[in-house]
Amino acid sequence: MFDVNVVGPLRMIQGFAPALSKSAKSGSRSKILNIGTVITGGAPWHTGYASSKVSHLLFAQVYELTRRQLYK
């Protein structure tokens, strides 16, 4: 589950990063769209799923903050 919800998106972004960086340096606007879900309730059997989704969300937020610092 963690591989699909966190590692997969991370590897995809890393794979496209060179092209996105080149595009940003040339003045084009490139975007990464992350789609996730939010779990409410906190049932004990959802902890693996919920933690992988929170990890995906936090990774996306940190990536965006880093990108803004690099290309401001």
Classify the helix fraction into a percent range.
55-70%
Low-confidence stretches: none
Question: What is the residue-averaged pLDDT?
Answer: 81
Please tally the β strands and state the result: 0
What is the string of SSEs from the N terminus onward? Answer: HH
Q: Which structural class best describes the helix and strand composition?
A: mainly alpha
Beta strand %:
under 5%
| Mass-distribution shape | elongated
Q: Radius of gyration in whole Å, from Cα?
A: 15 Å
End-to-end Cα distance: 35 Å
Largest sheet: none
Number of helices: 2
How would you classify the quaternary structure?
single chain
Describe the structure.
There is one protein chain. With 72 residues, this protein is mostly helical. It has a domain of 35 residues. It has 2 helices and no strands. Helix 1 runs parallel beside helix 2. The N and C termini lie far apart (35 Å). The relative contact order is 0.18.
Please sum up the structure shown.
67% of the residues lie in helices and 0% in strands.
List the helices and strands and how they pair.
Blueprint: H1 2-25, H2 47-70
Defining key terms:
67% helix, mainly alpha, 72 residues, single chain, elongated
